[in-house]
Write a structure and sequence with these properties.
Elements: E1 6-12, H1 16-26, E2 38-41, E3 58-62, H2 63-71, E4 83-85, E5 87-92, E6 107-111, E7 120-124, H3 125-136, E8 141-144, E9 149-153, E10 159-163, E11 169-176, H4 183-187, E12 192-194, E13 199-208, E14 215-221, E15 224-230, E16 235-243, H5 244-252, H6 255-266, E17 273-275, E18 280-284, E19 287-289, E20 293-294, E21 297-299, E22 305-306, H7 314-334, H8 342-372, H9 374-379, H10 382-387, H11 392-401
Helix pairs in contact: 1-3, 1-7, 7-8
The structure holds flavin-adenine dinucleotide.
Flavin-adenine dinucleotide is lined by residues 12-18, 41-44, 57-60, 148-149, 177-179, 183, 201, 203, 239, 282, 301-302, 309, 312-316, 318.
Length: 406
């Protein structure tokens, strides 16, 4: 166990955001290999351990995110397992069947104009976390595991973190990457706006009779959005949003029945669909914070913005958080200011507020309209009229291009 009690920067949370954040900040010239100035804290007993259940989810990393990962030395460990996306096909409503003259739902496509590189990549969360931890070990970062933060106090000249069974730590700046239920955010008195838990997402892998041909599919069904993301040849990663009671019911049916229900919802574009993994369920409760900073504290990742997974933007926002904070700290350092200087917090807020607020509003608004008010959506010409025009097209184009990072 490290005996040091002060670091320039402490990142709390060893999930996808926290580890990537610590790596990004470590390029800012803080500390040395012998005397790291950045610590990463997680309550898990060892690196990357979560609940014991493997995380079947995948993350879509857009082209700009990939460029960031290349610069941070992370991409080399992902490129072999990353599934490219060259096209996104988006459709609205249930599939229509018409015997021999089968009609398909109208859909629109976003094709990538840059022939040299796909618009985005899909990587498994487990592979991603493993790659991040591998790179973190090569950076001047002190990992501290089995350390659950029980209290945060930012009122003094330094931030103070308290734990149940280890000495306090102080820092100039604490970066809270402790997830959607962030305790640090609560201790700092930052309030949140959380939507009620009305939907859950079923996550699983499925095999496809017809190959996806590097295409991601997004269906806006009356029950909620359904996405199939390429995840290897003839294989896709499913994120199926449903009203929570229906999700519980569908989770409990046997595998054959599940595959049949999925086919009925998605349609036959990819031929037969077969469940190829366990099924996991995630409660969806989009949450946004009223503030992204407080004294000696900045929030990042789900601690700052837990958005609806449609459009696969949650982690991409976290990449933007890390890129902006790294810039803010570099500017402060160039002016001879510490990481805890107020200008870092205000610069960070200025750099993140617009994109995070816009993305949260767009994903939640679109989900609400298509899932809970389909009649209004239809009356407003939602069919492909709505999804084929702004702001929906903008949202998916932004997903492809990389938001703040592009
Ligand atoms: C179904 C689903 C599909 C998704 N698909 C995509 C996608 O395709 N693309 C995309 O960009 N995003 C996607 N997302 C969003 C993305 O998965 C999340 O944004 C991301 O995983 C959040 O990571 P995080 O590190 O911020 O939080 P978390 O994963 O919650 O990590 C928080 C960490 O903090 C630690 N911690 C918590 N409290 C304390 C404490 N008090 N002391 C010490 N440690 C603590 C925890 O142990 C944990 O390691 C999806 C989300 C869902 C639910």
């Amino acid at each position: 166990m490290t005996t040091r009690q002060h670091y320039e920067i402490v990142v709390v949370g060893g999930g996808l955001t926290g580890v990537m954040m610590a790596i990004a900040l470590s390029y800012g010239g803080y500390g040395t290999a012998d005397m790291p100035a950045i610590a990463l804290i997680d309550r898990a007993k060892q690196e990357g351990t979560k609940t014991g259940n493997s995380d079947l989810r995948t993350t879509t990393i857009h082209a700009a995110g990939k460029a960031m990962f290349e610069a941070l030395g992370i991409w080399q460990y992902l490129e072999k397992c990353a599934a490219p996306i060259a096209c996104i096909k988006i459709a609205n409503g249930l599939p229509t069947k018409g015997g021999l003259a089968r009609r398909r739902r109208p859909e629109f496509s976003l094709d990538w104009h840059d022939v040299n590189q796909p618009m985005a990549y899909v990587v498994g969360n487990e592979q991603l976390l493993e790659a991040l931890y591998r790179v973190m070990k090569t950076r001047p970062i002190t990992p501290i595991y089995d350390a659950e933060v029980s209290h945060f106090d930012g009122a003094g000249d330094l931030a103070r973190l308290q734990f149940a069974d280890r000495p306090d730590l102080t820092a100039q700046l604490v970066v809270a990457c402790d997830g959607a239920a962030s305790k640090l955010r609560d201790h700092a008195g930052i309030r949140t706006l959380a939507e009620a838990h009305r939907q859950s997402a079923i996550v699983a892998n499925v095999t496809l009779e017809i190959d996806h041909n590097d295409t991601a599919y997004q269906r806006f069904l009356p029950s909620g959005p359904l996405a199939l993301m390429p995840h290897g040849p003839h294989r896709a990663s499913l994120v199926w949003t449903l009203p929570k009671e229906e999700a519980d019911r569908i989770l409990a049916v046997d595998e054959t029945e599940f595959s049949n229900l999925l086919l009925a919802a998605f349609g036959d574009t990819l031929g037969g669909l077969k469940l190829d993994s366990r099924r996991l369920i995630w409660p969806l409760k989009p949450t946004i914070t009223r503030q992204m900073t407080s004294n000696h504290l900045v929030l990042a990742g789900d601690a700052s913005h837990a958005i609806h997974p449609l459009a696969g933007q949650g982690y991409n926002l976290a990449l933007g958080d890390a890129a902006v904070l790294a810039d803010c700290l570099a500017r402060a350092r160039a002016r001879g200011l510490s990481a805890g200087h107020r200008s870092v917090e205000s610069d960070y807020l200025a750099g993140r507020k617009l994109e995070v607020t816009a993305m949260t509003a767009m994903t939640s608004g679109l989900n609400r309209l298509m899932s809970f008010q389909p009649a209004i959506a239809k009356a407003a010409g939602a069919g492909m009229g709505l999804v084929n025009t702004s702001p929906v097209k903008t949202l998916f184009q932004k997903s492809a291009m990389g938001g703040h990072l592009a």
